[in-house]
Design brief:
- This protein has about 190 residues and is mainly α.
- The chain folds into 2 domains: about 15-55, no CATH class; about 60-185, AhpD-like (Up-down Bundle).
- Helices cover about 65% and strands about 0% of the residues.
- The protein contains 9 helices and no strands.
- Keywords: Oxidoreductase, Peroxidase.
- InterPro entries: AhpD-like (IPR029032), AhpD_core (IPR004675), CMD-like (IPR003779).
């Protein structure tokens, strides 16, 4: 099995140190996935740029976390599903919403469910949602710009989910209480 170092700031390549410091400043710590990216300054910089751009979308912090969680569940990424479960709670998603999203099941809020479902469909179809999927998303009150912003979320999480699949990044202590495995996904 392939294994990547999870470097400290001091052990990271020189080109990754400033970005790791920015991550720590923004989040209070640099998660193991970001430290894994630090093995390549270009990948770390790109991942951080994607995350920063996604944080500037018109979606609320709770919606951003719901999108990220839905994508991570669809891609069966335990690391990211755990992280976004914790961050989703902090952003205001309810326990019921988190439980449903983690299981791949519908949410009670029609608007949040439309968002979860659309992010899931875009991920599952590799960016090819059907006309009925787009129509349902728009009917829930979202617009064409929101579709582009969901696509940004999918691009961001695809990099992160796929990296975890290859690197088998150890779950940070902060995320262990919200650990997730594909067996929890019932909405297949």
């Amino acid at each position: 099995m392939l294994s990547y170092p999870i470097p400290t700031n001091e052990a990271a390549p020189e080109g990754s140190r400033a970005t790791l410091a920015a991550v720590e400043k923004a989040w209070g710590f640099a998660p193991n996935l970001m430290r894994t990216f630090a093995n390549s300054p270009a990948v770390l910089e790109g991942a951080w740029a994607l995350l920063t751009a996604f944080s500037k979308t018109r979606f609320t912090p709770a919606e951003q976390q719901l999108i990220s969680l839905a994508i991570s569940v669809e891609n069966e990424c335990g690391y990211c599903a755990a992280a976004h479960s914790l961050m989703g709670k902090g952003a205001g998603l309810t326990a019921a919403e988190l439980d449903a999203a983690r299981a791949g099941q519908p949410l009670l809020s029609p608007r949040h469910e439309a968002l979860r479902r659309f992010a899931t469909v875009v991920t599952a179809t590799r960016g090819n949602p059907g006309a009925s999927d787009i129509d349902a998303f728009l009917a829930a009150g979202y617009d064409a710009t929101a579709i582009l912003e969901v696509m940004l979320g999918v691009a961001t999480k695809t990099l992160m989910n796929y990296t975890d699949h290859v690197a088998h990044v150890p779950l940070d202590t902060a995320f262990k209480a919200t650990a997730w495995t594909a067996e929890l996904k019932t909405g297949r």
